[in-house]
Design a protein that fits this description.
Layout: H1 9-17, H2 23-36, H3 40-43, E1 44-47, H4 49-65, E2 76-80, H5 107-114, E3 118-123, E4 143-144, E5 147-151, H6 157-164, E6 171-175, H7 181-186, E7 190-193, E8 213-218, H8 221-232, E9 248-252, H9 262-277, E10 281-285, H10 289-315, H11 322-329, H12 336-356, E11 362-366, H13 375-380, H14 382-402, E12 405-410, E13 417-422, H15 427-441
Parallel strand pairs: 2-3, 2-6, 9-10, 9-11
Antiparallel strand pairs: 1-3, 4-5, 6-8, 7-8, 7-12, 11-13, 12-13
Length: 442
């Protein structure tokens, strides 16, 4: 049974379909692994064994009757602690929401449940999802699988850790500036950032509603495709017969390649060579308009985040981690007209960006320019915290600012990913490209 804990969600689903894996035994294996793991309470904020067992029994009965609901029917997964789940705490990693218990599941969780996925519980995250590091002294800081003294990446820190440590087959997180892709990259996983607006955010604790997105963290591109279908309640896309022949990839040379540290740089170089070997054409592209877009980021992110949470924050600021509190309060520096004008400028820049890059199938760069920082140093060195937090999210933020979809894949260097970014609402094409790239990088 221990081997099940390191299998992909898709492989587990196939095992259930073939009668080789019992969903009840599989769920018990995960629950036992969670209970025995030394970091379980740094990863899970709330385990739901009663729900998991009931869902596993129902799945086993369907499998026996030949009535499975989806390819992932009976597969146990975890959920970021900003996804509402009926009767269990959903506190978004903050004491401001302590004791918050929703009465119904978020639609994305309801969709996945209707397709037979088993809910293991909720996992820790950065406070109110406003950090790419995953450091959270208010609740818990999840460890990185490659360095237990380092942070897991945020804000979907527990999502990544639960999969990487074998405590969930896959997980669902959110991404506003990199919060799926950073923890996925730092824990050698696949992470998909969907297009803003593609997946409804009902029942999701917000950060910046215009930029918030939902996405899976998992072991393979196939898993990402199946998990996307699960949260949407749709059929998964066909990943058969993918190839890199004729694929054109543009390396984002503006901003994304600046000050990339040696580990991520080496991982990216090696990955590019493998992609070229299997037929991809890779070419650098300069995009100076990204400088203008990044100049708008402070108002776009902090003004909306502070506007969303101002009343709760100012009613009890002492409950917050000071670094996160300061980041939210930066939104006080901008007016309503500032915010409206910034979005108008960004919309124009987005049109220019996708026009300039229309000749490429996807844009690529290192998922993050840095490796996971040390948790203790982040707690005790404020300048280090600010520097690492901004660098962690720098490359991923391109996809959010430009409104595209984005996929990170692991490379040969631990905690160093390669990221593929494509135009809005092209997740199906991006996942097929990712499937071919995954084969090249294996």
């Amino acid at each position: 049974m221990n081997r099940w804990l390191n299998m992909s969600a898709a492989a587990l689903g196939r095992g259930i379909a073939q009668g080789e894996i019992d969903p009840v035994a599989l769920t018990e294996a995960y629950l036992a692994a969670i209970d025995a793991h030394p970091f379980w309470d740094r990863i899970y904020s709330c385990v739901t064994p009663g729900r998991a067992r009931a869902e596993a029994v129902a799945s086993a009965n369907r499998a026996a009757a030949g009535q499975r609901l989806s390819a992932l029917d009976g597969v146990p997964v975890s959920w970021k602690d900003l996804v509402d789940s009926a009767g269990t705490p959903t506190e978004a990693g903050t004491a401001l929401l302590a004791g918050r218990v929703p009465h119904q599941d978020a639609p994305i969780l309801a969709n996945a449940t209707a397709l037979g996925l088993v809910c293991l519980g909720k996992v820790h995250m950065s406070e109110l999802a406003f950090s790419g590091l995953g450091l959270n002294p208010v609740t818990q800081t999840s460890p990185c699988v490659n360095d237990h003294d380092a942070v897991a990446g945020g804000s979907s820190s527990g999502s990544a850790a639960s999969v990487a440590f074998g405590l969930a087959a896959a997980s669902v997180g959110s991404d506003t500036g990199g919060s799926v892709r950073i923890p996925a990259a730092w824990n050698d996983l696949v992470g998909l950032k969907t297009t803003a607006g593609r997946i409804a955010l009902d029942g999701i604790v917000p950060l910046c509603a215009r930029l918030d997105t939902i996405g899976p963290l998992c072991r393979s591109v196939e898993d990402a495709a199946l998990m996307l279908a699960a949260v949407e309640g749709t059929d998964p896309i066909d990943l058969a017969n993918t190839t890199l022949d004729g694929v054109r990839l543009g390396v984002i040379e503006t901003i994304a390649m600046d000050d990339v540290r040696e580990g991520p740089a080496q991982g990216f170089r090696d990955a590019v060579q493998k992609l070229e070997k299997l037929g991809a054409t890779v070419q650098g592209i300069k995009l100076p308009l990204l400088n203008d877009a990044f100049a708008l980021a402070p108002v776009l992110f902090t003004a909306e985040a502070y506007g969303t949470w101002r009343d709760e924050i100012e009613a009890a600021p002492e409950k917050m981690f000071p670094e996160i509190l300061e980041r939210f309060r930066a939104g006080r520096n901008f007016s309503g007209p500032d915010f409206v004008a910034a979005w108008q400028k960004l919309d124009a820049l987005r049109t220019q960006f996708w026009t300039a890059t229309a000749g490429f199938d996807a844009l690529i760069c290192p998922s993050s320019p840095i490796l996971p920082p040390n948790a203790d140093r982040l707690m005790n060195d404020s300048d280090y915290y600010v520097t690492e937090n901004l660098l962690a999210l720098r490359n991923t933020r391109i996809g959010n600012l430009m409104g595209g979809c984005s996929l990170t894949l692991p490379t040969d260097v631990k905690s160093a990913g390669i990221m593929f970014t494509a135009p809005p609402m092209t997740e199906e094409r991006l996942l097929r490209l990712g499937q071919a790239a995954e084969v090249a990088l294996a």
